[in-house]
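Batch 3, record 17
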Amino acid sequence: GDSVTQMEGPVTLSEEAFLTINCTYTATGYPSLFWYVQYPGEGLQLLLKATKADDKGSNKGFEATYRKETTSFHLEKGSVQVSDSAVYFCALSDHSGGSNYKLTFGKGTLLTVNP
Amino acid sequence: GAVVSQHPSWVICKSGTSVKIECRSLDFQATTMFWYRQFPKQSLMLMATSNEGSKATYEQGVEKDKFLINHASLTLSTLTVTSAHPEDSSFYICSGTGGINSPLHFGNGTRLTVT
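Prediction for the assembled complex:
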C-alpha cells in the first residue's frame, strides 16, 4: 500500500536558519504530493503541493520538488522565522481508483524556531 | 477562506458511554467528508469517507458499528464513538471538500479521552 516516511522530529532551529524536512514515499500509482502545516491550536492547512514529476510547489518561502526518481518531496526554506513553528505533515494522494483526496500522511515533524 | 468548524475541541468521557463529534462546513458545501484518527507520534489514519446522503465507506480495520458516521446534509457530518473504551482515546480530525476539483479543508480536531 501507499506510505509516507518523513523526518522524525522534533527539529529546533534558530531564526534565519535553513530548514530541510525530508519526505519519501511509496505509491502504487502516480500520486500528487502535499505538505500540510498545523499551527498550534489550529487545523491542518495546505502549505504547498505538486502533481507531477519535477514540479516545484512553493508558498510562504517554503519549497518542495517532486522527485520521481528518488520518490522524494523534501521541504525546504532558506530562512525560517519564529512564526514558522508548527507541525509539518507530508502527504500523498494516489489517484488510482479515483479517490482524489484520499490522503496518506507521514507522522508529522514538529518544528520549533527560537528567536 | 473556507472553514470547517469541529466540536468539541476536547472531551473526556467514561468508558461505555458514547461521544458525538460534529463537523460543519461554514461557507462551502461539503459533498465529501473524511474522518481521520491520530495516535500520539503517529500519522493521521483515514477512518472513513462519507458522501452526503450516502453510507460512509470505512477503511479496513475500522469498526463501522463502533464509529457511526452521519452525513445527512452538505454542511454537517458527525462521528459518534459508541461504547467508548480507553483504547479509543485519540485525536479525531475531519476534513471536507466540495468536490474532486475543490480544496480540502480540515477541522481543528477533537481530543477524546476515555477514562
